[in-house]
Amino acid sequence: QKEVEQDPGPLSVPEGAIVSLNCTYSNSAFQYFMWYRQYSRKGPELLMYTYSSGNKEDGRFTAQVDKSSKYISLFIRDSQPSDSATYLCAMRKGEYGNKLVFGAGTILRVKS
Amino acid sequence: EAGVAQSPRYKIIEKRQSVAFWCNPISGHATLYWYQQILGQGPKLLIQFQNNGVVDDSQLPKDRFSAERLKGVDSTLKIQPAKLEDSAVYLCASSFGQGGNSPLHFGNGTRLTVT
Prior knowledge:
The structure holds two protein chains of two kinds.
Chain A: E1 4-5, E2 11-14, E3 19-25, E4 32-38, E5 45-51, E6 54-58, E7 61-66, E8 71-76, E9 85-92, E10 101-102, E11 106-111
Parallel strand pairs in A: 2-11
Antiparallel strand pairs in A: 1-3, 3-8, 4-5, 4-9, 6-7, 7-8, 9-10, 9-11
Chain B: E1 5-7, E2 10-13, E3 19-24, E4 31-37, E5 44-50, E6 53-56, E7 65-68, E8 75-79, E9 88-95, E10 105-106, E11 110-114
Parallel strand pairs in B: 2-11
Antiparallel strand pairs in B: 1-3, 3-8, 4-5, 4-9, 5-6, 7-8, 9-10, 9-11
């Protein structure tokens, strides 16, 4: 069983839709949770990070962490064609030196 | 600020040949990472440096892969000899700290094709 599971998609939505991207994980030691966006032939770029459980909002993006269910989500409101990319969840266990573990990524396509 | 620089962008080699990748991290970032991203998968950590010391190389295939970070700045990753399954994008990343929510900044990677 992989430590981090993520549906690879592709997920295709019309412009303006609300998008929900999700990851599940098996290791309860994970404490720091991040979402990266990766455009084709580019490196991943950090979108959001959260520590432990709860919600965090940044513009059109909202990240949610439910540690009791070992489930994290990224919501994108008013999706735009420019949001078309691969979205990677990532998480790490502790403060120092623990490696960041990535999900496989979900391909998102927003149609205009 | 200038981002993480990697070269070359693309490399095609035959199996059993050797290849090297170069990375220049963001100025002032003490932690440097090499990740391998196979098509359709998320990045997998190969090696993590803190300054010029190795923090984690548990997933580095040491019989064929090697990496160094001289003077705690630039880094090179080498594969010798290459296998078909080494075809992937090799991503270099750097961060100011080495844990917690210290964000990783990635370069655009080197796409390696082994034929």
